[in-house]
Amino acid sequence: MTGFLHGCVTAMVTPFTRSGVDRESLGEMIEYQIASGVEGLCFLGTTGEPATMSERERIETLSFAIKKVAGRVKVIAGTGSNSTAQAAANSRRAARLGADGVLVITPYYNKCTQAGLVAHYEKVCEAAQIPVIAYHVPSRTGVTMLPETAERLSAIPNFAGIKEASGDMVLALDILRRVRGKCDVYSGEDLLNFPILCAGGAGIFSVLSNIAPREVCALVKAVGGRKLFTANRLADKLFPLTKALFSEVNPIPVKEALNLLGFRAGAPRAPLTSLEEEHREILKAEMIKFGLGVKA
C-alpha cells in the first residue's frame, strides 16, 4: 500500500527517571513536536529504548502517548521482536490501543533467511490489520533485506513501507526502484534524508527532529515542493549538527541534546551510558552554532 504516511516522523526518546518513565516530560516533548509541524511521532523505536523497558512500561508509555496525541498527528508504535509470535502480538496490541501504524524491525540475532523475512512480515501484517512499516537496519540486526525481498513484501495489502537505514545508497535506490508505486520508502538515517527524499522517499523517521523539528520539516517540504536549491542549503546546514548527534550510539547524544535544550530527557538506561564529555562539548557547540536555544 502507498500513501499511508508522508513527511517528517520524529523517532521519540523515552525520558526516564530513577523510578520509571517520566510521562510529564514525554508529554512536553509531544506538544513541542506537534507545535513544530511534524506529521507523525514514533514511540518505542530504537530511539525510545524499548529493549530496556518492561512490558508494562511499554504498554503504559504507548497508551499515554496515544491519548496525549489525540489524533493530531499519526502515531507509529515500535512493535518488533526477533520472535515472530511476539512481534505479531505486540502489533495486534498496538492496533487495539489506537496506534495508526506499527514499525517492525527485521528479526535480529536469529539471522533468518529472506524467505523467513517474508513469512515474518506476512504474519505480523495479518495480526496487526493496520499499516506495517518494516525497519531495515542491518548494523543493529545482522540481517540485510534484499531488494527483491522488499518487492515481495510490497504485495502484502497492509504493508505500508520500509524505513531504510542500511546506510547503503545503492541498496536504497534498488529498493526504491522495485517498490515504487507499491509501497513507500522512508529515510531512517538522518545523514541520508536529502538523497533518499530526492530519489522518491515518502518521508523520514528522524532522530534529528527531536531537537530541530522545524528545520527538518522544512527540508522535507522543500524537496516535496521541488525547491531543491532551498533543500540543499537546509541539508548543508543540518549536516554538522547531525554528525555531532551521532558521535555515539543513538540515543545517547540526542538525550543529552534534549537536556541541553531544557527538556528532562534524563539519561539512557544501561548498558547505554551518558554522553562522554568530549562529545558533549562538540554537540553543544554545534547546537549553539545552529542557533538552538541551549540552556545548559
Salient structural properties:
296 residues, alpha/beta, TIM Barrel, eight-stranded parallel beta barrel, two-stranded antiparallel ribbon, 12 helices, globular
Structural description of this entry:
- This protein has one domain: TIM Barrel.
- The termini are far apart.
- It is of the alpha/beta class.
- It is built from 12 helices and 10 strands.
- The mean pLDDT is 97.
- The protein is globular and about 50 Å long.
- The strands form 2 sheets. The chain has an 8-stranded parallel beta barrel with strand order 1-4-5-6-7-8-9-10, surrounded by 6 helices. A two-stranded antiparallel ribbon has the order 2-3.
- It has helices at 23-35, 55-69, 84-97, 114-128, 138-141, 147-153, 169-179, 193-198, 213-224, 228-245, 252-260, 277-290, and strands at 7-11, 16-17, 20-21, 40-43, 74-78, 101-105, 132-136, 159-164, 184-187, 203-206.
- Helix 1 runs parallel beside helix 2 (55-69), helix 3 runs parallel beside helix 4 (114-128) and helix 9 runs antiparallel to helix 10 (228-245).
- Helix 3 links the parallel strand 5 (74-78) and strand 6 (101-105).
